[in-house]
Amino acid sequence: MTGSVPPAPLAELAAPGGPLDRLVAAGLRAAGTGGVWSVGDAGGVRGRGRTGVLGQGPYSERPMDHDTVFDLASVTKIVALWPCAGALWQAGRLPLDRPLGDYWPPAAGRPVGSVTARQLLTHTAGLPLRTRFAALYGSDPAAIRAGVLAAPLHRPPGAAVEYTDRAAVLLGHLVESLAGAPLDELAARQTWRPLGMADTRYGPLGPEWEGRTAPTEDEPTAGGALCGVVHDPSARLLGGVSGNAGAFSTARDLERFLTALLAPPAGAAPPWDGPWAAESLRVHTGGLAPARGLSWLCAAGTDPAEGTFVHYGFTGTGIWISRRRGRWALLLTNKVHYDRDFRPLTDLRNAFRRTVFG
Fold this sequence. Notes:
Strand content: 5-15%
Order of helices and strands: HHEEEHHHHHHHEEEHEHHEEEEH
Low-confidence stretches: none
Number of strands: 11
Distance between the termini: 10 Å
Number of helices: 13
Largest sheet: 6 strands, antiparallel
């Protein structure tokens, strides 16, 4: 494990042309994609950088910037679903350790009825590992949600940590049921608007967003690269609004979000601030590996006791936070627009984390 040597001050790391600038520029060249990065603390942004262009073909003349709109992929689990679950928990309406079937009628009498919200948040619920929604349930969102509720468990709840998008899809359905509103509306009301995240929303995005939205993969049914339409096929089947994926955002908005996790804004604190972040950013998986908090993952290569947490998105996005270090970081790319060789990006992410957090 690493982390015994404290990292350098953020001002030194993030200076123009400094260690992070050089590291990210070289790493993204090797990964074959452009991107943006930022680092900060409870006081806000302490440094940022950008490199490359939005993509290939018609996107090659548009530079990456901190107002570039990215498909967050699974970072949606943190930016949309996790705060909504936290608002319900802080209001006493989402018990973490009661079986779902005890208080949520759609789960009663079904395999998922024995699962708890904590197990969904830590990916220890024993749900099937693959979604396969179209093959199993068709294209109707109601049929997909019914299928997720009725599916047999893959293993007993609490037996292993196994990441699956089904956990976030099910938790999103639960959150919407308990709150009585769609997830996109809840996320906007409880998180994005209070924090001034004006460019964060679920897709599909309108044509006015196209000029600054980073494209993802080619999709034959779309006649080219997806741009402003969610890349994740499960979220697309669910109409673009899901707990597992579907949100779009910018670095500037995520800077506000991550800063708020360390220091909620005075007079505009969202309904999940403070206690929920403290509860979530600690290990909830006991001796199981990989260690996880609530929704968040303990960063690979760190001692879980150090409290450096991360969440990645398949499109090429990533955010980190450490309450112990009092700092946060983000690195946003659209790697899948170019290819699915993720090893160079993984190497960069790990080096970026070591530089910022130790």
